[in-house]
Design brief:
alpha+beta, eight-stranded antiparallel sheet, two-stranded antiparallel ribbon, globular
C-alpha cells in the first residue's frame, strides 16, 4: 500500500526531476582486417516522465528501470555503433523519446576515454593502444519530446601551465589585500570548456572538438617563439571563447572555466638558502576560480 506524505503541498519541478543510470561504461571493438579500432565511453542517462506517479504515489508503472537504461546503452552500441560521443548521445535520446510515450525529456551525457594508437618510430600500431590524456572529451544532449536535440560538446581536466607572459595588476587594494602586483608570474590552470551548437547539420564533431581544444591552447600559450601576454585569466577566457566562435559558425554559446592553480615560492631561508625564484611549491587549495559564459550577440531591429 502506497501513501503520500503528510507535509506541506509541493509541486515537482519538471526540468529538475529525473532519474537514470550513471557511468555506464562500454568499449566497442571494431575490426577492419588487421586494423582494429576502439571507442570507450561512459554514459549518463537522465529521463523525465510526463507523470510523477512514482514520486507521488509509489506507482512504478511508467518507470523504465535504470537497469533497462543500462542495457539500452549496450544494445544501441551494438545496433548503431559509437562513432562520436555526440552521435551516440543523440541516438540514445531519440530512442528513449520515441520508444516510450511517457518520456517527455532526456539528457544524455557521454565522456570518451582517451585511447590513442601506439606509435612505433612514426608508424601507428594496428591493434595496440595507449591511454594518453590531454583532456577529457564529453558531450551533453538535451531533448524534449517532438523537439530537436540541443547538443553541447566540451572538454575538462586539460591542465596547462606557462612560466611567464602572465601578470595581474591594477586590482582593488584595501585593508584586506596582501597579494602583490606582478607582471611576470607562472600561470597554471585546469581548463573545463563547453560549447553549444545552434545547428548540428553537417558538423564533423571530431574535427570541431580538435579545433576548439587547439584554439584554447593557442590563446593560452601564444606563438611558440614568443608567447602571448595575459593580463588576467578573465581576458584569456574571453579571447578563447571569441576565437572558438570565429572558427566554428555553428557554435552560439561558449562556457569556459579556468581555476588559477597557484605556485608559491618555497621558503628556503629556514634551511639557510636563498630562493631566486626557481623553487616553487604547487598548491591545490585554496585556488582562484574564474568562469565566463558568452553567447553570440543577436542583431537588434
Amino acid at each position: 500500500m502506497s501513501r503520500t506524505g503528510s507535509g506541506p503541498k509541493m509541486d515537482l519541478v519538471s526540468d529538475g526531476t529525473y532519474y537514470g543510470k550513471h557511468r555506464v561504461r562500454i568499449l566497442q571493438h571494431f575490426r577492419h582486417g588487421n586494423t582494429h579500432n576502439i571507442k570507450e565511453v561512459a554514459v549518463n542517462t537522465h529521463l523525465s516522465l510526463a507523470r510523477q506517479r512514482d514520486y507521488l504515489h509509489g506507482d512504478n508503472s511508467d518507470v523504465i528501470a535504470t537497469d533497462s537504461q543500462k542495457n539500452t546503452v549496450y544494445a544501441l552500441a551494438k545496433t548503431k555503433g559509437i562513432r562520436t560521443p555526440e552521435q551516440f548521445a543523440m541516438d540514445l535520446s531519440r530512442h528513449f523519446l520515441t520508444t516510450y510515450e511517457q518520456v517527455v525529456r532526456t539528457e544524455i551525457s557521454v565522456e570518451e576515454a582517451p585511447w590513442h594508437r601506439m606509435d612505433h618510430s612514426g608508424k601507428e600500431h594496428v591493434h595496440a593502444f595507449i591511454h594518453r590524456q590531454e583532456a577529457k572529451r564529453f558531450c551533453i544532449v538535451q531533448q524534449e519530446k517532438n523537439g530537436l536535440p540541443k547538443v553541447s560538446s566540451g572538454l575538462s581536466d586539460m591542465k596547462v601551465l606557462k612560466t611567464t607572459k602572465s601578470g595581474f595588476v591594477g586590482f582593488v587594494r584595501d585593508r584586506f589585500t596582501s597579494l602583490p602586483e606582478t607582471t611576470d608570474r607562472i600561470l597554471c590552470t585546469s581548463v573545463r570548456g563547453k560549447w553549444s551548437y545552434s545547428s548540428v547539420a553537417g558538423i564533423d564533431f571530431d574535427k570541431t572538438w580538435e579545433i576548439c581544444k587547439n584554439t584554447i591552447l593557442d590563446i593560452f600559450a601564444g606563438p611558440p617563439e614568443t608567447g602571448m601576454y595575459s593580463p588576467s585569466v578573465q581576458q584569456t577566457l574571453y579571447q578563447a571563447a571569441q576565437q572558438i566562435m570565429a572558427k566554428v559558425p555553428q557554435v552560439d554559446k561558449v562556457e569556459l572555466e579556468m581555476p588559477n592553480i597557484h605556485y608559491l615560492f618555497a621558503d628556503l631561508k629556514k634551511i639557510g638558502m636563498e630562493n631566486s625564484g626557481d623553487i616553487l611549491v604547487p598548491t591545490d587549495e585554496p585556488r582562484g576560480y574564474i568562469r565566463a559564459a558568452v553567447c553570440r550577440t543577436t542583431a537588434r531591429l
